[in-house]
Amino acid sequence: MTPVAVIALQEVKNGLRNRWVLAATLLLAVLALSLTLLGSAPTGAVKVSELTVTVVSLASLTVFLVPLIALLLAYDAIVGEAERGTLLLLLAYPVARHQVLLGKFLGHLLILVVATVVGYGAAGLVVGLRGDTGPAAWASFGTLLGSSILLGAAFLAIGYLLSTLVRERATAGGMALGIWLLLVIVYDTALLGLLVADGGRFVTPSLFGALLLLNPSDAFRLLNLAGFADARLVAGLAGVDAGAASSPAAALGALAAWVLLPLGLAGWLLARREI
């Protein structure tokens, strides 16, 4: 077994020991089932399947909850180990620093995968048993599952970047909360204020779409709420024009970049960090 796999499995074991896997799975499952059982009222009015309404509801839940879970998993992955002295002990073994980073990242990502698939899968199963659902709705649900994991991976990478930047665990925790507030809440509010102030003079659909892709949360929204016709109708985005950014390929590319760039920068910083 490679060092990366060993470290990843150890992170999963730590997550099981600390009840992280169970807590995240139960939280996602309870909230997803609540939205599924209580949020299907609009289906008759907009003539879409119940699963599509569930996808829109779960997408809104994902934007707030999955990034927070990911940041809480990752913010002390490096700085916490360094404070406790276990990172220095780990590096005394024949393992490279980038292997430590990648192994921890994959372990935390596996925790997110289990929580998301089990939690949201339960909601999808309930909807599937309650009525006839078309392939288009199942395609949007599959996209939701995959992109939720990708969004979690993006915020895991951001958390690892924070963890390699700072020297104290408390600082990393405060910065992680600030990043969550900025990317999940403040950014969209500022963007809305810009659109209102601009009045359609300078912010073109292409520029608006590019600004959305600069935020992983908005890239996730574009993929799930604007990438499918029925979802656009339920979410009230049928008249929204974000230019080329509305394409699923653009949103997926932005999410992938938000995984690779912060994680690569974290690896570069860790290689130069004094332990």
How far the N terminus sits from the C terminus, by CA atoms, comes to 26 Å
Mean pLDDT: 84
Strand content: under 5%
Number of strands: 0
What radius of gyration results from the CA coordinates? 20 Å
Largest sheet, if any? Answer: none
* Low-pLDDT segments: 235-239
Give the % helix. Answer: over 70%
**How many separate structural domains?**
1
Structural class: mainly alpha
Secondary-structure element sequence? HHHHHHHHHHHHH
What would you call the shape? globular
**Helical run tally:** 13
Tell me what you see in this structure.
The protein has one domain (3-271). The protein is built from 13 helices and no strands. The chain has helices at residues 3-17, 20-38, 43-46, 50-74, 79-84, 86-91, 97-130, 135-165, 169-198, 205-213, 216-225, 229-235, 248-271. Helix 1 crosses helix 7 (97-130), helix 7 (97-130) runs antiparallel to helix 8 (135-165) and helix 8 runs parallel beside helix 13 (248-271).
